[in-house]
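Format notes (please read before filing issues)

Several people have asked whether sequences and structure tokens are stored in separate files. They are not. Every record keeps both together, in the order shown below: the sequence lines, then the token lines. Line labels are part of the format and must not be stripped during preprocessing.
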Amino acid sequence: MTFLMFSVTKNANKDVSYNRNELLVTFKGVKYGAFAGFVATWSISSVIVVTELLLGLNIGAFYSIMGISLGITDITTATSIAFGLHLLVGTIIGALFGAIGIRWKKVRMLNPYKSSLVGMGAGIILWLILFLPITLFLVQPAINSITTIMAVGSQQAVFSEDVNQSIRNITFIAISFHLIWGAIFGIIVSSLLRIRLFKIKQHYRDIINIDPNIRLVTICDSQGNTMYSRHGEGVSNLLTPEESKKSIEMAMTGWKVRSELSNKIGRGRYVIAEYERIKRITMPFGEDYLLYLTTEPQANHLNIINRIRKLEAGLKYSFS
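Then the structure lines:
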């Protein structure tokens, strides 16, 4: 009975730690995706204006049609509300795709080319499951209302056939709009991830320069996956690449096991293991990074740890 209770408690603590790390990763994806979705949607709005001019339509015709379809009778109000909703929906969808993309390991969004292709695929899906149904089941049934309100607003004759033709044109042109949206979205997300990686590399340079006795700096994410790892200049590795990888994995696994008790004993500050030829330090860095360091035996590990903690303040102000 005691063993069963211990096992249940241990699994519960493990779930809390795992869920917290998963939440941090997901939030980062939401943040990146929302920003990319907003910028991409704003950019598409500019493309829509250019298209309207090329088709001989009034500027804002697309948004006025969408707004009137929602039951708004004033053209200016309909245009403004539809534009605002477009930005809001684009931002929310971007946040959703960002959360999925950052968690889906098969999607390599760090690569701008692959990320843009993934975004374009997402754009086509959006056109199929969102834009097309809205056009068929919301805009088309409101043709008469749209024609009447636009005629009154412009004080010119407006024919339902012309409006219907414009809607059909916009529906098919919207495929290219969504492809462009997806490409912009993917490139922005990829750029943000690469900026993050650049900052991680900068953290490596800052840490490796703290003390000449530091041999190796490895930066891992909250799941223990290696994001960046490099030895100091002129340092010869005592282990083979396979042995180094295994050592890092063991240290990260040990850290995650200890983190399962963090809700009772608090977050771990650091773990140090001292061997005859090296010292090994494992410690958190910011909210979602873990550090794995090795140093020479004579290194003042407390001084190194304290100076690393001072660097952590920079993480709070970085776009990570």
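For reference, the curators noted about this record: The chain has nine helices and five strands. Residues 1-18, 316-320 have pLDDT under 50 and may be disordered.
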